[in-house]
Amino acid sequence: MAIHSGIETEEKGWQDYANCLGVDPDLFFPERGASTREAKEVCRGCVVRDDCLEYALQNGEKFGIWGGMSERERRRIRRQRALARAAAAAQAGSVTA
Ligand code: SF4
After folding, report:
1. Reduced to 3 DSSP states, what percent helix, strand and coil does the chain have, rounded to the nearest 5?
2. Confidence tier at 56 by pLDDT (50, 70, 90)
3. Which residues lie with the beta carbon below 6 Å from any ligand 1 atom?
4. What does the domain layout of the chain look like in residue ranges?
């Protein structure tokens, strides 16, 4: 995202289409217990929401709102994916065994 960027490339990346361009970065890094509602409202209409979320998941971003999701929500997705991978691996193992 614009706020979450720091990734400088010549080509336009998903960050260039972020809805949060120009929005106060503090909104996306709320204090513990503070509302995430406003940040999520900005994300709701963002066309690169999936890219943003995937970037955060791939890079293990621990803080802030990415792709409209909080740290806790992203942790849940990572856990679900890990379980799915484990199940797929177990399935593959039982097929070849
Ligand atoms: S999903 Fe939210 S945080 Fe990510 S780029 Fe869009 S507006 Fe910014």
Report:
1. 55, 0, 45
2. very high
3. 1, 4, 18-20, 28, 42-43, 46, 48-49, 52, 65-68
4. 14-96
Residues contacting 44, CB < 8 A, separation 6+: 68
d(CA 76, CA 43): 19
Other C-beta atoms lying within 10 Å of the C-beta of residue 3: 23
Q: Which of 3, 15, 55 to mutate to test the pocket of ligand 1 (most atoms within 8 A of CB)?
A: 3
Whether the predicted pLDDT of 4 surpasses 80? no
The pTM of this model reads: 0.84
